């Protein structure tokens, strides 16, 4: 069976599908076949930008819309694959004329604007390494990442430059060029107007001769557990992005696809740029911030067929209520997926109720570069589970000791989630932190730092990050299980639990809870929630204390920072909070 045939296997009914119907996905998988999902450079080698853009011109997709950009103010702009090829070539020519070479680092700091996407792809075309930064970072996190990454070029806006880069620019002499996307007449010194350079740049650029192992992207982790790490990814990652885009997100060339993640995070690059473009579909970029009504309008007006989003957003949509979603015609939507945090079963079932289909949870990390586990298109969704390993991925539940790894083969036993090394989008190192990188591996396996268990059907269930797991009265408790029960209560929209040292139990569980509109944070509700948790979890693992908050501290990529709640509760130092976003008490 060829790879292209694997793609043609009929999409099953998600409810009635029998896993054995899809044995082909696993049985016929082999990496030599999988590699056929990309073309490779005509002269040999691999370049992500070539796969994502230029090759489509040879396959008759030149006039197809690659990107439809929806501006904050209601404007729209479209780029066909041919236009994207030309624009990215121009940007590669700009870099080349500035003297940049293969391996040089280009950073991006901007909102979701087309020029940022063009800069990313154009940098890769030129053989440079691109590192996307989230535009809401403060000056210090921007500086430390650019310093670590040896930035030679920064692509940004004038406002962001003045506010967040200018104050320390002189301390980073290696940063030779700052290209402004929207330069005013009064351009700051040391900056260049990018549109002027683009206007005179050569629209033809021979794609750099990059090989599979050449560094392409530098992605910083979310900083949920501590200081963000710079994960290095290579050009051959595109094989896996394309493949997993098919398997986990069910992407087809005829789809209209919307990934809501910002390219400042790995999801917004792997599945917000590379996978969808490599597959040759039309993708939506929405510049605006989250707003429930606006999001439903985008889904309806753009006739989105595949939607990839995150638990935080789903919970916000749930908060906005079922009536709102009922006002929109979302009949084009046929596949919805979620990543980034545990997706509570409640949210999966809500999807089923209001959209007529479940959210498909999937699991991966900045380090893995692509989706590893998924309730994927061809399999039955199990609400609350992260799904099964994608074809080509071998996962296991392990414990690590001085002798090496022990594999847990029994069902439902908790251990660390590990992946057998060797898939194409795997990170190659943490930049300038080789020892930290090496510590992630044992006996040829990558250890994720997340705890999970596997059920009898081979589905993996998230327990918690190893740092967040709570030990109380001899029980090992994952925060996810307790939080999911709290979320079942009609008053609760967000929940996070931590372990608090206790002289008798070792730790007791404390919960932090945010309420839906219309509910009052008082002792009556507190008692009701404690009772609800005790009823469903048993008194041993139910929270003993509950605090109400307006919202929970989250990283800018939308992950609840339990370590911060814990540090505050225990009066300990807060640690690295460079990625902290919302945090109202
Ligand atoms: P840092 O490594 O800096 O602490 P981070 O781990 O949050 O930050 P990311 O690489 O963005 O940075 O996130 C990966 C992590 O997100 C996973 O290790 C896991 O803990 C969590 N995660 C992602 N998807 C899921 C999911 N579907 N279910 C549960 N957890 C998930
Ligand atoms: Mg991590």
Automatic annotation (TrEMBL):
UniProt cross-references to SUPFAM superfamilies, sorted A to Z: Acetyl-CoA synthetase-like
Q: What organism is the protein native to?
A: Amphritea balenae
Q: What is its EC number?
A: 6.2.1.1
Give residue ranges for domain AMP-binding enzyme C-terminal.
Answer: 481-559
What keywords would UniProt list here? Acetylation, ATP-binding, Ligase, Nucleotide-binding
One GO MF term, please?
acetate-CoA ligase activity
Keyword ATP-binding on this protein?
A: yes
The record's top EC class is ligase
Which residues belong to any copy of the AMP-dependent synthetase/ligase domain? Answer: 62-431
Indicate what this protein is called per its UniProt record: acetate--CoA ligase
Quote the PROSITE patterns the UniProt record gives.
AMP_BINDING
Q: Which domain of life is it from?
A: Bacteria
**Would you kindly state one Gene Ontology biological process term found in this protein's UniProt entry?**
acetyl-CoA biosynthetic process
Q: A Pfam family name for this chain?
A: AMP-binding_C
Can you supply one Gene Ontology CC term for this chain's record?
cytosol
Q: Which NCBIfam families match?
A: PRK04319.1
User: Which InterPro entries does the record associate with it?
Assistant: AMP-bd_C, AMP-bd_C_sf, AMP-binding_CS, AMP-dep_synth/lig_dom, ANL_N_sf
């Amino acid at each position: 069976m060829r790879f292209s045939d694997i793609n043609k296997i009929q999409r099953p009914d998600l409810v009635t599908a029998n896993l054995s119907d899809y044995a082909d996905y696993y049985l016929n998988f082999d990496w030599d076949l999988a590699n056929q999902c990309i073309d490779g450079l005509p002269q040999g080698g691999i370049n992500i930008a070539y796969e994502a853009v230029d090759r489509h011109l040879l396959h008759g997709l030149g006039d197809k819309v690659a990107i439809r950009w929806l501006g904050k103010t209601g404007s729209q702009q479209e780029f066909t694959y041919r236009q994207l090829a030309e624009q990215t070539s121009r940007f590669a020519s700009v870099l080349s004329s500035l003297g940049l070479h293969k391996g040089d680092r280009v950073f991006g700091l901007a909102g979701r604007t087309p020029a940022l996407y063009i800069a990313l792809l154009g940098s890769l075309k030129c053989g440079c390494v691109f590192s996307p930064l989230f535009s809401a970072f403060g000056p210090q996190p921007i500086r430390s990442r650019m310093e670590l990454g040896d930035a030679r070029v920064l692509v940004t806006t004038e406002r962001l430059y003045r506010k967040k880069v200018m104050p320390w620019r002189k301390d980073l002499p290696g940063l030779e060029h700052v290209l402004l996307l929207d330069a005013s007449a009064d351009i700051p010194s040391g900056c260049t107007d990018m549109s002027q350079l683009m206007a005179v740049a050569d629209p033809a650029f021979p794609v750099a001769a990059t090989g599979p192992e050449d560094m392409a992207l530098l992605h910083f982790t979310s900083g949920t557990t501590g200081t963000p790490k710079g994960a290095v990814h290579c050009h051959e990652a595109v094989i896996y992005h394309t493949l997993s885009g098919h398997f986990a997100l069910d992407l087809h060339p005829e789809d209209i696809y919307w990934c809501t993640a910002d390219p400042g995070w790995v999801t917004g690059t792997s599945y917000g740029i590379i996978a969808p473009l490599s597959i040759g579909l039309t993708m939506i970029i929405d510049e605006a911030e989250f707003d429930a009504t606006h999001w439903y309008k985008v889904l309806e007006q753009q006739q989105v067929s595949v939607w990839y989003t995150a638990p935080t957003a789903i919970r916000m949509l749930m908060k906005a209520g079922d009536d709102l979603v009922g006002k929109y015609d979302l009949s084009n939507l046929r596949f919805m997926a979620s990543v980034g945090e545990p997706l509570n079963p409640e949210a999966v079932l809500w999807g089923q109720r209001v959209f007529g289909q479940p959210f498909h949870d999937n699991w991966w990390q900045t380090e893995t570069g692509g989706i590893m586990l998924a309730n994927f298109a061809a399999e039955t969704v199990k609400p609350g589970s992260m799904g099964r390993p994608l074809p080509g991925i071998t996962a296991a539940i392990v414990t690590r000791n001085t002798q090496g790894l022990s594999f847990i083969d029994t069902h439902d036993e908790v251990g660390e989630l590990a992946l057998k090394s060797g898939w194409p989008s795997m990170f190659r190192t943490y930049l300038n932190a080789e020892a930290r990188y090496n510590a992630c591996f044992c006996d040829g396996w990558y250890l994720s730092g997340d705890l999970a268990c596997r059920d009898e059907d081979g589905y993996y269930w998230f327990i918690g990050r190893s740092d967040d797991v709570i030990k109380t009265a001899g029980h090992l408790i994952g925060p996810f299980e307790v939080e999911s029960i709290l979320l079942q209560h009609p008053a609760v929209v967000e929940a996070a639990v931590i372990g608090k040292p206790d002289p008798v139990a070792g730790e007791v569980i404390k919960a932090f809870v945010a309420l839906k509109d219309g509910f009052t944070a008082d002792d009556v509700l507190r008692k009701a929630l404690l009772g609800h948790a005790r009823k469903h979890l048993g008194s041993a693992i139910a929270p003993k204390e509950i605090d109400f908050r307006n919202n929970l501290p989250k990283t800018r990529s939308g992950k609840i920072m339990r370590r911060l709640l814990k540090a505050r509760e225990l009066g300990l130092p807060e640690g690295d909070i460079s990625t902290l976003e919302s945090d109202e008490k």
